[in-house]
C-alpha cells in the first residue's frame, strides 16, 4: 500500500465529488477537440461527414506541418484541462502537483529519464540490425528543431496534466494510489487506440509507460517530472532518432534517419517502437526500479504524516 503524498492529501481536502465516468469522458473529449478543429480547417468536406482522424488529416498536410499542428493544438487542451479541474472539480494547484519549489530540477531529471529510456531502445535496434540508420543533422534547420522541442514540451505537459495531475489524484482520493496508477494508465493507453498500427503490444507498452509516468508523479509530487520524461521520450524518438511516435507520420526534422526494417515484434511495425518487445523489457525494468523508489517515498510520507498528527 502506498501512502498519500501531499498532492493527494490536498485533493482529498478540496475536490468536489463528481461522477468518475463523466469526468473521464469529458477529459477524453477535450483531448480530441484540437484534432476535430484541425480536421474542420484542413479537410474539404469534413462538415459533410468526413471523419477527421489522424490518417485523413495527414493526407492534406506535410508530415511536419501535421505533427506541429497536433503538438501546438495541445495548448487549447491544457487550458481546458486546467479550467475544468479548477472550476468543476474545485482543485487547486497543490492538488495538481503544480506547487513544487524544485520544478527545474525535477524537469531536468525527467528529461534525462526519457532520453535514457529511448536511447536504450534505439541502441537495441542498432545492435540487433532492426533499423537502417543514417545521419541527417546537416539537413535540419535549428529553428524548426527548436520549434519541435517546444511542441513536444507542450504536448507532454498536456497529457500529464490530464492523466496524472487530474485523473490519477482524482482516483487516488477515493480508491487509493495503486488503483489510481492502474486506472489512469489504462486510460492513457486507450487514448492512443485510434492511431495507425495500434495493437495489443502497443496497448501493453503504453499502459506500462503510463505506470512509469504515474510513479514519477507520485515520487516527485511534481507534474513537471513526468511531463519532462514524456516530452523527451517523444522528442528523442521523433527528432533525434527519426522514429515514428505512436503511429503518427514520421517527421523529416530529425538528426538521425532510422528506417525500421526488421521483425515487427522488435521494431513495432507501423506503430513504431512503442509496440516493440525491445521497449517492453526496458519498461518492465524501469517499473521495477520506480516501484522500489515509490515504496521508499511511501514510507517517508507515512513518517511525515505521523509527525504532523502527533
Automatic annotation (TrEMBL):
* Coiled-coil ranges from the UniProt annotation: none
The protein's GO terms of the molecular function aspect are: endopeptidase activity; metallopeptidase activity
Q: Which domain of life is it from?
A: Bacteria
Q: Which residues form the CAAX prenyl protease 2/Lysostaphin resistance protein A-like domain?
A: 144-235
Transmembrane ranges? Answer: 21-46, 66-85, 106-128, 140-158, 170-191, 197-219, 231-249, 269-294
Tell me the Gene Ontology biological-process terms attached to this UniProt entry. CAAX-box protein maturation; proteolysis
InterPro entries (UniProt xref): Rce1/LyrA-like_dom
| Keywords on record | Hydrolase, Membrane, Metalloprotease, Protease, Transmembrane, Transmembrane helix
Which Pfam family, an example, fits this chain?
Rce1-like
What PANTHER family does the record point to?
A: MEMBRANE-ASSOCIATED PROTEASE-RELATED, PROTEASE
From the Swiss-Prot or TrEMBL record, give the protein name.
CPBP family intramembrane metalloprotease domain-containing protein
* Species annotation: Anaerococcus octavius
Amino acid at each position: 500500500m502506498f501512502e498519500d503524498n501531499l498532492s493527494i492529501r490536498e485533493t482529498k481536502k478540496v475536490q468536489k465529488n463528481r461522477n468518475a465516468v463523466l469526468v473521464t469522458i469529458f477529459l477524453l473529449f477535450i483531448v480530441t477537440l484540437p484534432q476535430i478543429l484541425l480536421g474542420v480547417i484542413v479537410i474539404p468536406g469534413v462538415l459533410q461527414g468526413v471523419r477527421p482522424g489522424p490518417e485523413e488529416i495527414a493526407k492534406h498536410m506535410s508530415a511536419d506541418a501535421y505533427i506541429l499542428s497536433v503538438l501546438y493544438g495541445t495548448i487549447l487542451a491544457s487550458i481546458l484541462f486546467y479550467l475544468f479541474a479548477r472550476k468543476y472539480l474545485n482543485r487547486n494547484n497543490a492538488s495538481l502537483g503544480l506547487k513544487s519549489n524544485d520544478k527545474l530540477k525535477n524537469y531536468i531529471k525527467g528529461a534525462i529519464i526519457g532520453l535514457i529510456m529511448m536511447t536504450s531502445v534505439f541502441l537495441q535496434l542498432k545492435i540487433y540490425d532492426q533499423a537502417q540508420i543514417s545521419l541527417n543533422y546537416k539537413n535540419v534547420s535549428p529553428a524548426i528543431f527548436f520549434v519541435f522541442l517546444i511542441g513536444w514540451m507542450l504536448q507532454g505537459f498536456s497529457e500529464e496534466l490530464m492523466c496524472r495531475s487530474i485523473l490519477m489524484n482524482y482516483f487516488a482520493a477515493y480508491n487509493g494510489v495503486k488503483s489510481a496508477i492502474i486506472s489512469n494508465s489504462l486510460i492513457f493507453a486507450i487514448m492512443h487506440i485510434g492511431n495507425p498500427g495500434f495493437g495489443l503490444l502497443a496497448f501493453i507498452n503504453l499502459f506500462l509507460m503510463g505506470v512509469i509516468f504515474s510513479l514519477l508523479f507520485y515520487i516527485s509530487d511534481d507534474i513537471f517530472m513526468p511531463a519532462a520524461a514524456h516530452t523527451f521520450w517523444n522528442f528523442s524518438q521523433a527528432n533525434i532518432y527519426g522514429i515514428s511516435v505512436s503511429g503518427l507520420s514520421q517527421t523529416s526534422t530529425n538528426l538521425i534517419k532510422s528506417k525500421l526494417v526488421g521483425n515487427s515484434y522488435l521494431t513495432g511495425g507501423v506503430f513504431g517502437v512503442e509496440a516493440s518487445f525491445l521497449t517492453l523489457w526496458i519498461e518492465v525494468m524501469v517499473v521495477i526500479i520506480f516501484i522500489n523508489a515509490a515504496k521508499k517515498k511511501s514510507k517517508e510520507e507515512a513518517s511525515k504524516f505521523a509527525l504532523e498528527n502527533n
